[in-house]
Amino acid sequence: MLKRILVAFDGSPQSYQAFDFALEVSKLCPGAAPEIIVLSVAQPPEPADIVEVEAIIDSATQHYEELFKGLREKAKERNLEIKTEVVVGHPADQIVRYAKENKCDMVVLGQRGKSKIENWLLGSVSKRVATYAPCTVTIVK
Fold it and tell me: How far apart are CA 63 and CA 57, in angstroms?
């Protein structure tokens, strides 16, 4: 039984697909629909400068809040409410941390198409989340 679904959202087409998938999954759950949490991660520059970090957090929060409006409307059309949150840090680490701390039953995220070299150098967010998350992870392509 799913009680809490975490959707990793970065505004990409894949993250919109992940959100739509979470909405569909919630319809399949017997009884009460699971809580859907949409999480976006603002990534600070390396090395971090306090002034820059604050500006980036403010800018990212404002950017994601605009995108969240559309997601809320889409959920409302299905008689669902969503919770939204913006955190700061490395995307994979923050998604895994949030899933653990909030006892999420499933994480849904989109797969971004990176080249093999980018994946080798940087590591894939979806791959890291799938490896370290404490719950089921669904990667939407």
Answer: 10
Task: Quote the CA–CA distance of 125 and 25 in Å, as a whole number.
Answer: 22
Contact between 75 and 107 under an 8 Å Cβ cutoff? The reply is no
44-80 residue pLDDT tens: 766 656 666 777 788 888 999 999 999 999 999 999 9
Model pTM greater than 0.70? yes
Three-state SS for 81? coil
Q: Which residues of 25-38 are buried (b: 16+ CB within 10 A; e: fewer)?
A: bbeeeeeebbbbbb
Which H/E stretch holds residue 138? Answer: strand 136-140
Which one-letter amino acid corresponds to residue 35? E
